[in-house]
Amino acid sequence: MITVTNARKNYGNFAALDDVSIDIPSGELTALLGPSGSGKSTLLRAIAGLESLDDGVVVIAGKDVTRVAPQKRDIGFVFQHYAAFKHMTVRDNVAFGLKIRKRPKAEIAERVDELLGIVGLDGFQHRYPAQLSGGQRQRMALARALAVDPQVLLLDEPFGALDAKVRADLRTWLRRLHEEVHVTTVLVTHDQEEALDVADRIAVMNKGRIEQIGTPEDVYDRPANEFVMSFLGDVAKLNGHMVRPHDIRVGRDPGMALAAHEGTAESAGVTRATVDRVVHLGFQVRVEMRNAATGDLFSAQVTRGDAEALRLSEGETVYARATRIPALPGGLVPVEISSVASADAAEPAVKAETAATAETAESAETAETAETAATAETAATAETETFETAETVETAETAETAGAAPKDVAAGNESGARTTG
Ligand SMILES: Nc1ncnc2c1ncn2[C@@H]1O[C@H](COP(=O)(O)OP(=O)(O)OP(=O)(O)O)[C@@H](O)[C@H]1O
Ligand SMILES: [Mg+2]
After folding, report:
1. Does residue 41's CB lie within 6 angstroms of at least one atom of ligand 1?
2. What is the predicted pLDDT for the residue at 353?
3. How far is CA 185 from CA 40, 105, 270, 386, in A?
4. Are 70 and 224 in contact (CB under 8 A)?
5. What CA–CA distance (Å, rounded) separates 268 from 262?
6. What global pTM score does this model have?
7. Which residues surround ligand 2, an ion (CB under 5 A)?
8. Using a 6 Å cutoff on CB, does residue 12 contact ligand 1?
9. 150 CB under 6 A from ligand 1?
10. What is the enclosing helix (H) or strand (E) of 106?
11. Average pLDDT over the chain, rounded to whole?
12. Which atom of ligand 1 is nearest to the CA of 205?
């Protein structure tokens, strides 16, 4: 178990961590999810010991490590831009931590082969990093982090720079790996789908604070507030409520939007709307509609089959109804259809949450990642005499990464803007 209590970290008068407390259960995979600049990396680095806290306590496995050096915290760390030793083969890269710990050669060879098997890089032992794909390099990075049997694995956007398909494959793979080795893992991501996909628990961060911690179902279906609701997925605003677009039922007459036992159209809050646009997204269809009473735009997500059955097309009158309305603090009580007509039409129909921000932040992150990578490596090797050489090599490598990476980082940090309304 990792416990962070009342953590604070200020940069000037900016609070990167503003009184953060979190329990991370042993053996679980916890995701830190939030927009760019919300403090995810700062929190992860505080757990690693790469960032000193202004206030607060970090406890790992019952031991207060707040003032303990990173190399004594028994952690493995993987960054968004993994800086491999380019002049070393895959085998040597993975063996690195074991070598500097002066483990017997036979043991190292056996462990490295085992790890390369686990990460699916059997047969790649003698390749150099430049001869690997991005995804293979990240898996090599994970093997290297796992080589020394850390009690905690910290992953800061390890797949951030890869394309969507490879990311999806790697996270499936990470999930399986985690089920196999069960090392306590903290994964930083700003990708809500990634977090929902792989994590046992998700901590949603915003502006240096944790907004909610819970299972994927908790944060998606029972969001603690509007921020969590918007950040975890698409949101539509219907009659003053924030609802998920797939929780809006669409029909061709007021009764069609209702199940038989759900009362009358009036009591169930059925909204008359005009179809503005029908967008086919593979299996799903997004129906963009205009609320007839308020003029607000909102979207529903229906299956292709439903869209075909309803023969939805532009300009047609339909009826829509939210089948599930999450209870949000300060949220409105369900409104009767009669009162909808007088609702404030000026209210924005779209609640969009965009994660990525200024470019400066992105390049800052690049520099920071490179720098931290060097520090982590230092941390891993600090106890040995080979430390100096290792540090020099690693710094050189990461400096190169820092020079080459801004574009990738920008791409990696791009958010999927959720703008359904
Ligand atoms: N060394 C630093 N000096 C000043 N400000 C910093 C420093 N490191 C981080 N910050 C600021 O602290 C805030 C949190 O940064 P952090 O790196 O934790 O964000 P993040 O959630 O990891 O974002 P991203 O998704 O972009 O990586 C940001 O606003 C950042 O600009
Ligand atoms: Mg970060």
Report:
1. yes
2. 34
3. 14, 28, 45, 28
4. no
5. 7
6. 0.75
7. 41
8. no
9. no
10. helix 105-118
11. 79
12. 21
